[in-house]
Amino acid sequence: MWRSLTNPLKEGPILRARWTVILCLLGALALGLTACGSDDDGGGGGGGGGTAAGETLTIYSSLPLQGTSKEQSEAVINGERLALKQSGNKVGRFKIKYVSLDDSTAQNPGTADEGQTAQNARKAVQDKSTIFYLGEFNSGGTKVSLPILNKAGIPQISPSNTAVGLTTDEAGADPGEPQKYYPAKTRTYARVVPKDTIQGAALATTMKEDGCKSVHIFNDKTTYGAGLARNVSTSAKEQGIKVAGNDGTDKNSPNYRSLAAKIKADCFVGSGVTGENYVQVFKDVGAANPDIKLYGPDGVAEKAFTNPKKGGIPAELAKRTKITVATLGLEEFKKRGNAEAERFFRDFEATYNESNPDPYAIYGYETMALALDTLKAVGDKANDRKAVVEQLVGNTKGRNSVLGTYDIDENGDTTLTDYGLYTINEAGEPEFQKVIKAQEG
Amino acid sequence: MRGAAAVWEFVSKYGLIALLIAFPAYFAITDLSNGEGLTRIGNNLVAGLSNGSIWALVALGYTLVYGIIELINFAHGEVFMIGSFVAFALYGTLGLTLATGPLGLAVGLFVALILSMLASGTLNVMIERVAYRPLRNAPKLAPLITAVGVSFILQNVGILWLGSSQKAIPDLIGAQRVLVDVAGVTISRADVLAVGVTVPLVFLLTAFVSRSRLGKAMRATAQDPEAARLMGINVDTTISLTFLLGGLLAGAAGLINALYQTNVWYFQGFTAGLIAFTAAVMGGIGNLRGAVLGGLIIGVIQQISDNRIGNQWTPAVVFAYLVLIMVFRPQGLIGEETREAG
Question: Which of B64, B164, B306 faces A66 most closely, judged by CB atoms?
Answer without folding.
Answer: B164
